[in-house]
Amino acid sequence: MKNSQSAEECCEFDVTDVSQVKGFTRKVSFGCGNVYVTVNEISLRPVRVFVKVGKAGCCQRVLLEAIGRLLTIMLERGDPLNRMIHTLMGIRCGETSVGSTRHRGSDRAETCYSCIDAIAKELREYAPPEDV
Question: Global pTM?
């Protein structure tokens, strides 16, 4: 996005028209609690990310909310999805914090090493296969 462009001019979709928006929430269970990653999409393109923690301290909750807001800004700007995924994928918070998530429409489970890794794996569902 050029400095003279507004977010509305940059986005090819009207993210304020809620009739176009679909949302999917995935629950990932960790030793420290459950993490809920919601991705809102328009025409299979992610436009917003929300992250909520079921059982967590205040700092973890606000940090995850901030990450969701920053990812939303990046999506609105049209930043490359694969860059976001590769930046976040594989981040670990400790040897004992391992969760698992299931892909939409599949029984296949995947290991998540942190809340951040779970966010990346959810975003990966929206990336073209050649980009991941």
Answer: 0.74
CA distances from 84 to 31, 38, 66, 100 (A): 25, 16, 15, 20
CB 92 within 8 A of CB 113: yes
Task: Measure the N-to-C terminal CA separation of the chain; round to a whole number of Å.
Answer: 23
Determine the Cα–Cα distance for residues 35 and 73; give it in Å rounded to an integer: 21
Q: What ranges do the domains of the chain cover?
A: 20-131
Which of these, 112, 126, 129, lies nearest to 23 by C-alpha position? 126
- CA 118/CA 132 separation, integer angstroms: 15
Q: In angstroms, rounded to a whole number, what is the distance separating the alpha carbons of residues 90 and 50?
A: 19
**pLDDT averages per 10-residue partition of the chain, 132 residues:** 41 62 86 85 90 78 93 93 94 70 64 88 84 60
